[in-house]
Structure formats: C-alpha cells, structure tokens
Amino acid sequence: MTNAEDLDRIAIRKRGTVAFFDRVAGKYDRSGPRFFSYFGQRLVDLAGLPSGAQILDLASGRGAVLFPAAAAVGPQGQITGVDLSEQMVVELTQEIQHLGVSNITVRQMDVENLQFSDTSFDFIFCGFGLFFFPQLELALAEMRRVLRPGGRLAVSLWDQSMDDQWAWFYQEVQAHLPPDPTAKPVPSRPPSGELDTLAGLERALGEAGFRDVRVTLEFHDFVYTDDNDWWEALWTHWTRMALERIEQVNGAEGLALFKRDIFEHLQTMRQADGIHQLFPALLGLADK
Ligand SMILES: C[S@@+](CC[C@H](N)C(=O)[O-])C[C@H]1O[C@@H](n2cnc3c(N)ncnc32)[C@H](O)[C@@H]1O
Closest Cα to residue 10, out of 114, 115, 127, 132? Predict the structure, then answer.
C-alpha cells in the first residue's frame, strides 16, 4: 500500500524529473557524439523487429529508439512513443512532422499509468528510462500488461562502471562546491537501485514476471570533436545537474573556473581525432 507521504514523495520526484527533461529537451542527444542514438540503434538491432510490428517506446526522449524502430518495422508497422516531459513530446513531434514519418504517434503519458488496453503491443522499448520511475515495480507491471503474450521487452541502462568514467569529473564538482556536510552530493548518475548491474537488471525483469531474460554489457568509445563539443554536450544530459549546482552556488565566474579546471583534465582524454570517453550500457531483452 502506498500512503499519502509516499505519494507526495513520488509526485515531487516526478515533477523534478520532468522539469529537468523540459530544460534539456531542446538539445538532448543533439550534440556531442549522440550516445543515446547509438545505443538506441543497438537496442533495436538486438530486439530483432519484424516488419509490420506494433511498437511502444516508453520514455522516448528525442527518439533515440523510436526512429530506428520505425525504420526497422517499415510503413506497415506502427510506433507509439510516450514521455512525461511536455517539452520532449513537443520537440519529438516537431521532428516527426519535419521528417514526414506517418507511422509514429507520440503522447505525453506516465509510464506508471499507461493509457493503453492490455496486450496492445508486440514489442516494448524503454531506453535509459527505468531509473527515473519511482515505482519501478508498477512501471514494469504496466509494461507487461500492455505487451501481448509472446511479445518482447527491450531496455537499456547505464552500468555502474559508468562511475569510473566520471569519477574525476565529480571530484572536480565537489572541489568547486563549498564544504557543506548537510548538502547532498551531486549524483553522478540517476538513482538506479540495483538496476545498474547485469545481475540486478536480470533479477528486476525476472521478478516482474518476464521470461527468457538476457542482459548484455556493451562498451562503446565515443569521440567528441574538441573540448567545446564535450562542454556543450554536458548541458544536454545528466551532468547538467552538476553544472547548474555550481552556477547556482558560485555564479557565472565560478562556473568559468570549473570549466577551466575540467578542460585541463580533458587533455588526458585527448587523442589525435578528439576527446575519447568510454560508455558502458546494459542492454536487456525479456519475453512475456
Ligand atoms: C535519459 S532519457 C531517455 C530518452 C530516450 N529513451 C533515449 O534513449 O535517449 C529519459 C526520459 O524518460 C522520461 N521520463 C522520466 N520519467 C518518466 C515517466 N514516469 N513516464 C514517462 N517518461 C518519463 C524523461 O522525460 C526523459 O525523456
């Protein structure tokens, strides 16, 4: 049973998530090496979509999964995208219209309360979304409800080893913030519970009633053209939280100092073709 206090906490967390994604929607996955698009394509490839399938893409963002899924199922297929952020839905709808894709529909909706009948879809995708749902069990139950028997769920999440890639960055963040034992440290990733390991994700999908759960860990080396490409991309995803906190606490000058210091570190990641960073993703498939 969820009590009134829990419901308040859940609503506050969702409002914070939506406000954040409303702020980043315009540039989300549209600068830097577009790692969400890369892993979106990978997830679609792994899922093995037949042409003509009915697809639901949850937490669609700017369509990292949705567009490759539409290409895979062809004009006979139908793709429905869902996101809770109004700005994401606005940006995505504009892009769909701009591209003239006729078999994609996008709706603003909460994954934890899907407005679809039981067994409506052949495949359900959720790229880098599960860690944002405060009631994960409810979200997974909703996914299973709207998936047809024999249908397939495909999800992606960052693996916990992502922390190794960003440790130096968050050390700099903390070094640039005044010591305050009462302040929560800026989180280096969305709160993932146990979902950020291969075994943890397998367990969560199994406990939600899915069968034939198989999760793989994939690494991909992304290349930013230069320091500014890397800096611009920071504002378009989770790391923006840290930049906003530094700007809020230290002002524009403090942010400039932070930028100077992290640019020094970037030189250690530089190779002939640009700034390299390795991203580890968990890609999970499960059937109903
Ligand atoms: C990290 S983005 C992933 C977007 C896309 N799937 C991708 O792979 O690039 C997470 C998305 O989840 C959405 N989201 C968060 N909580 C949600 C909820 N309860 N219901 C629907 N969408 C939600 C956010 O608005 C955001 O667009």
Answer: 132
